[in-house]
Amino acid sequence: MSRLRLTRRRFAALGLAASFATPARAAFPDKPIRLLVPFAPGGGTDIVARFIGEKLGAALGQPVIVDNRPGGNGVIAGEALTRSAPDGHTLLVATAAGFASAPALGAKLPYDTVKDFAPVGMLGLFPLVLVGAPNLPANTLAEFIALAKAKPGELNYASAGVGGTNHLVFEMFAQRAGVKLAHVPYKGAALATTDLRSGAVHVMVDSLAASLGNIQAKAVKCLAVTMATRQPQIPETPTLKESGVDLVYPGWAALAAPAATPAAVIAQLSRALADLMAQEETKARYRQLVIEPAAMTPQETAAFIAQDRAQLTELVKKLDIKLEQ
After folding, report:
1. Which of 22, 87, 147, 269 is 20 to 30 A from 162 in CA distance terms?
2. Where are the alpha helices (DSSP H) in 73-224?
3. Which strands, in side-by-side order, build the sheet including 64-68?
4. What does the angle CA 91 – CA 34 – CA 255 come to, to the nearest 5 degrees?
5. CA–CA separation, 217 and 79 (whole Å)
6. Which CATH superfamily is domain 129-225 in?
7. Using 50, 70 and 90 to split pLDDT, how confident is the model at 322?
8. So what's the architecture of 33-126+250-319 in CATH?
9. Where are the domains of the chain?
10. Percentage of the chain surpassing pLDDT 70?
């Protein structure tokens, strides 16, 4: 037998042994991806999740199946993620309510929002607006602040309930603007909006998506937006910062995976999500849904969520806000 043939056989044997010793890891994803959404079908966040899921599935070569798990302020969906395999095939739509407000309010959660989840990227920022009743004797934010300071405690603001986003954001605004208003909590934003339109309450913070129809119909007065820039749907409405109140606060939704998900899988998902945010089709669809695209790395997303949680925790502690029992 020639030396050349022996060498070839030896290399072949070594290669065969190596293949048995270190089996190749399957390329991600190698099966459908499940996307847990903490809301019922049909809402704004669900619509975004389905749009992104469809596009993400096309980019990754595997379908993304939306799994709605409403209830418990996001706890049911969050707990389902922590019990799933950390391989990137189960993801969660994480929101400000579950990952910032709930921990800030001291809610008892069956998981740690920092240690048990790995942020992948931001799905989008949700503009909020400060809107007033149609009979409010103020047409600008400056006029409203002057009115509130002239009548401390006489004006009120509505919310969808104690500890909700519109409650906490209004209190942040009040702290920065130096005003004091009575809080009127409702069981849901729709009931609060009804009383705002009738003039039974004076102002409230709500999502621009929910308020846009009423703003365009002049059923409410739009005083300011909470984003860093003016919004294309209401370009005449200034931001809080433009109006002299140092506050930028968007609602948000992010994509998260179980904490032990491999870094390479997180990076792959993050890149695919960032590519989607840059596409004109995504930007156009987001404008229709009144959402602002926000491409963030996993590290930037984690820092964004941590900063939100920290500022809400400070606010809750300072004002001694308690969850309703």
Report:
1. 147
2. 75-82, 96, 102-104, 141-150, 165-177, 189-198, 208-216
3. 64-68, 33-37, 90-95, 251-258, 117-126
4. 25
5. 41
6. Periplasmic binding protein-like II (3.40.190.10)
7. confident
8. 3-Layer(aba) Sandwich (3.40)
9. 33-126+250-319, 129-225
10. 91
